[in-house]
Design brief:
- With 250 residues, this protein is mainly alpha-helical.
- The chain has one domain.
- 72% of the residues lie in helices and 0% in strands.
- Helix 4 packs parallel to helix 9, helix 6 packs across helix 7 and helix 7 packs antiparallel against helix 8.
Length: 250
């Protein structure tokens, strides 16, 4: 009996539905609330604020995305289609629909950020994350490019690996439309809850929008079969917010 239990535990510890979400959640813990690691103080290195934040972005991408993918590929034992990263939301999905949607929403989101959101004092106090220090053009471009890693954590991490993995785990062996819709809705709700908790210290307007964003973008990612199009939307919108705020306070 003990041998069977040991084998069962060994199998559980290599089950992708356990390994991947555990890795992502551990990564979020190591990344820290709002992407500010509690294990490592990047400000203590004496770097400029924007470079310290670039290091935080890379730290998050390592633990929230790269390590869980490595755990999936090198440790877990997924079966069938779940061996592919596409099954976890990291493929192209329905790209003919996703690409125009992603680009269109990115443009719309950027316009909203420039003409409305960037005017809010609470948002000006929060963004850019490194502050309002004027940067040379090359440094600013490097910072905003590395900002993509920040959104990689959110979209590829908990809305890719976590959301798609949870949906398929809840679905089990069922494959009818009703079961997929129910499992998808449950997965979106759970990952949105995690997103809401992560945003608790954000400005009130951003906190209020976090669950709405989580529900809509989670549902859209599942519908498109990929996280990349909503990631494009998220990144471009926030880059536009940063630049609009810098232009207003500069």
């Amino acid at each position: 009996m003990s041998g069977e239990n040991e084998g069962g535990w060994r199998g559980l510890l290599r089950d992708p539905d356990v390994v991947v979400p555990a890795s992502v959640l551990l990564g979020l813990l190591l990344w820290g609330p709002e992407g500010d690691p509690w294990l490592l103080d990047f400000d203590a290195f004496g770097w400029p604020a924007h470079r310290a934040w670039m290091a935080r972005f890379a730290w998050g991408a390592l633990f929230v995305v790269a390590v869980p993918i490595a755990a999936l590929k090198l440790w877990a034992r997924p079966a069938g289609r779940r061996r592919s990263l596409a099954a976890w939301g990291l493929g192209l999905g329905r790209w003919r629909r996703g690409l125009p949607w992603g680009l269109g929403l990115a443009i719309a989101g950027a316009l909203v950020m420039v003409f409305f959101t960037s005017k809010a004092p609470t948002m000006q106090a929060e963004y850019p994350l490194y502050g309002h220090e004027p940067l040379p053009t090359g440094e600013l471009v490097a910072y905003e490019a590395s900002y993509l890693l920040f959104f990689l954590c959110g979209e590829a991490g908990w809305r890719g690996l976590l959301l798609f993995g949870l949906r398929d785990a809840l679905l089990g062996d069922r494959d009818d439309a009703s079961a997929r819709l129910r499992a998808g809705a449950q997965a979106v709700l759970w990952t949105t809850f995690i997103q809401l908790v992560w945003h608790l210290d954000k400005p009130t307007a951003e906190l209020a929008l976090a669950p709405v964003w989580g529900l809509l973008v989670g549902a859209a990612s599942l519908r498109l079969g990929s996280v990349w199009y909503m990631l494009l939307f998220h990144w471009v919108s926030n880059v536009a917010l940063d630049l609009a705020i810098l232009a207003r306070v500069g």
